Amino acid sequence: MRYLRELKCRNAATKNHRSHASLDWNSLAGILSRVFCAALLVALFTTPSIVAAQQTAADGPLSAEQVKQRVDVLLSQMTLDEKIGQLNQAPGISFQDAPKPDDLIAHGKAASVLWVSDPHEINRLQRIAVERSRLHIPLLIGLDVVQGYRTIFPDPLGMAATWDPKLVEQEQTIAAQEARAAGINWTFAPMVDIARDARWGRIVEGAGEDPFLGAAMARAQVWGFQGRQLGGPEHVLATVKHFAGYGAAEGGRDYDASYIPDEQMWNVYLPPFKAAIDAGVGSLMSAYMDLNDVPASGNRFLLHAVLREAWHFDGFVVSDANAVGSLVTHGFARDKEDAAYRALTAGVNMDMVSSSYLDHLAELVQPGKVTMAQIDAAVRPILATKIRLGLFEHPYFDEAKTEAVLSAPQHKQFARTAAQRSIVLLKNDGDLLPLAKGKYATIAVVGPLADAKVELKGFWGGIIAANQDEPVTSVLEGIRANVGAGTRVEYAKGPGIRRSIVSFFEQFGLIHEEGAQSTSEAQTEFDKAVATARRSDLTVLVLGESLLGSGEAASRASLDLQGRQQELLEAVCALGKPVVLVLVNGRPLNVAWAVKKVPAIVEAWIPGVQGGAAVADVLFGDVNPGGKLPISWPRSVGQEPIYYAHNLTQAPETDPHFTSRYHDELTSPQFPFGYGLSYTTFLYSNLRISNTQPKVGEAFEISVDVENTGKTAGDTVAQLYVHQRAGSASRPVRQLKGFERTALTPGEKKTIHFTLGKSELSFWTADRKAWVEEPEAFDVWVGDDSTASLHGQFKVTAD
Q: Where are the beta strands (DSSP E) in 6-138?
């Protein structure tokens, strides 16, 4: 997306940009030409290339050999320029100094178009490709369908908080259905970057800090988007991003370099990508940043040694926006011709919008610096993907059927279920929650996010034009619908919140936060909010982050509540009345004061279009919260990065004399990884290990009994952690190696079974530069977060 910023710098004429949050790219960039050639078009299925490409996918999934044969036929007919065209992705926006996509498509110089979401425009562009280009090769139409298309679900960090891969797969299945019904056949998701620093803005787009949980979420999202096999008519091509190490940016600063030792790369940052590839993902996106001083989009180690040689990935790699051209900016490439050479030979198949390949690859082929064989190898997986997707047989979609899919009522209901299951109860002193309906004569709902709409959809949800008119249930509306007769609900917004440094997305007119308030306006709203809370019996404070407070280009040096929210929180609590704090945010925030003073805290994440209804369901006990944190929650920003799976030291916190590594703050997080409360209680007992001395490579079972010891039905997430006591490398104090979310009625007991074996007990060691499973002693714990105390041990023995 930096490409948009760079184009803006080159084009001062921004008067046509929309002033509200939308991705109606035609309005953004000026209306593209809609004049079609008047001559009779060549019939779609009578040209040699289409006949060859049509061997027929209608008879069922094609074999690898059949796909190869079809690709061979197409390649044999393509000119060098047409092959290079298949390596180029064009923007669906037309700027004064950018090529119009119509001309590129008609001349076979674009394999894909991105950033267009209008269904009619998508069909129009596809017709240019299929009916006007010489070989009639259809387009891949790409868009960032990250957490839904029209129906917006919880953000990916919230998805991970469900600890429910099946639900996440269902979410992305719906997202794929809606996107495909509108002509989108390729999504730039899921993002599977491991992130251990809450300052990093894009932490909201991933599954948090843990590679095991991250791998499970990556696998689920790929299956949701693509199905179990690429090519289903209601599925889309998925893209795992950003390959690789983007989430380890120094200081949590978006786009900054990552320095990752091999041990961490293989054991922490790569496993979710490997899980996605094993799940069949068709494309990867290379990252922006330097990885150990070599930009990821020109990094042959990543894109060739790991991806092709070690993992045998047979899909294609697309760069992030302008990342190929940015190799010059990095100081890695001398010019754009050199950038094209370095990216292609490293392993980037498709250049996203920088035109480096389009403008310079032919110049590199003529003297033989790049061979035709290398060009063909880059083009092959792109053509193969289009064949597997069935685009040659079905390049268009029926616009008359689009709305029925997008407005399906079951999608909205599932969005509410997903939001319910993502919510994490962080604190509930005195069992203030759930709120008894009718107990309070007046409830105040206060805060800048109390009646928020677009903020509940988040950045990617708010920027897609397809959902601009989609109703969003705010927290205020959810409470009013749920509170019951006899209770009056009053509302006050309080001072507004927005970023101190304007996002370049806002500068482009793509999406907007609310306008800045004057000091007097903010004070008036502050006083109204406190007065509203004063005349009420209980206050629900809805605080968190502004629309662009998290996401791309939204890293933060502070994790404090934005604006005057902390001041408002303290003023309302000073009234001495019950307070419930609801957080709407894309990252952990500094709530240390609230943890001491506020009796009940609910983490709602960025919950989607039904988020307000889901929050109310939890507040009033219609739903018992069962979400768990996918990331360690810091006490203050000074603890970042903080994560549970750190190594032991010479003075470990397991020592009874340990106090803290800081002299002014505890070392432990505010809330540990895997943490989340419930309205009921659970007892974990009877840990059993089927084989306490398994041989290397041998699988065995660990089981535990879980009982609901309370009076309310609820969910718990059984989590299994292991620690290898010695070996060729120091091992983390604990590592998640199994989890299962399960529902229990009051008094019900279930036995949960986990399997451990080579894949769970192996690790990559720098000592041997290889994956090993070592004959050593292990600890194992099972419980409901990463501090679980139910303990056992086993010893892996030599084979």
A: 88-91, 112-114
Which residues are CB-neighbours of 40 under 8 A, at least 6 positions away?
none
CB 302 within 8 A of CB 274: no
Q: Which of 210, 254, 290, 320 is catalytic?
A: 320
Q: How many CB atoms lie within 10 A of CB 278?
A: 13
320 is catalytic: yes
For residues 577 and 530, is the Cβ–Cβ distance under 8 A?
Answer: no
User: How big is the chain, counted in residues?
Assistant: 799
**What are the tens digits of pLDDT across the range 317-340?**
999 999 999 999 999 999 999 999
Q: List CB contacts of 712: < 8 A, sequence separation 6 or more.
A: 621, 624, 678, 679, 680, 746
**Helical H runs in 581-683?**
592-597, 611-619
> Taking residues 542-570, what's their average pLDDT?
96
* Beta-bridge mates of residue 221: none
Phi, psi dihedral angles at 163 (to 5 degrees): 50, 40
Rounded to whole angstroms, what are the CA distances from 689 to 109, 449, 705, 780, 798? 60, 48, 12, 10, 18
Give me the pLDDT at residue 362, please.
97
pLDDT at 336: 97
Which amino acid belongs to residue 14?
T
List the structure tokens of 153. 């679900």
Pick from 682, 697, 694, 654: nearest CA to 777: 694
Q: Which structure tokens are listed for 426?
A: 């962080």
* CATH number for the domain whose boundaries are 409-639: 3.40.50.1700
Q: Do 584 and 456 meet the contact criterion of CB atoms below 8 Å apart?
A: yes
Q: Are 380 and 71 in contact (CB under 8 A)?
A: yes
Q: Domain 682-795 classified CATH 3.40.30.120?
A: no
How much is the pTM?
Answer: 0.92
Burial 124-158 (b: 16+ CB within 10 A, else e): bbbbbbbbbbebbbbbbbbbbbbbbbbbbbbbbbb
Q: Domain residues of the chain, as ranges?
A: 409-639, 682-795
| pLDDT tens sequence across 45-91 | 333 344 444 444 456 789 999 999 999 999 999 999 999 999 999 99
Q: Do domains 409-639 and 682-795 have the same CATH topology?
A: no
Say if CB 631 and CB 163 are below 8 A apart: no
Q: What is the pLDDT of residues 202-245, one digit of tens each?
A: 999 999 999 999 999 999 999 999 999 999 999 999 999 999 99
Angle CA 68–70–74, to nearest 5: 115
Q: What angle is formed at CA 583 by the lines to CA 582 and CA 586, rounded to 5 degrees?
A: 160
Q: What are phi and psi of 174, to 5 degrees?
A: -65, -45
φ/ψ region of 105 (left if φ > 0, alpha if ψ in -120 to 50, else beta) reads alpha
Q: How far is CA 753 from the centre of its chain?
A: 29
- Averaged pLDDT score across all residues of the chain: 91
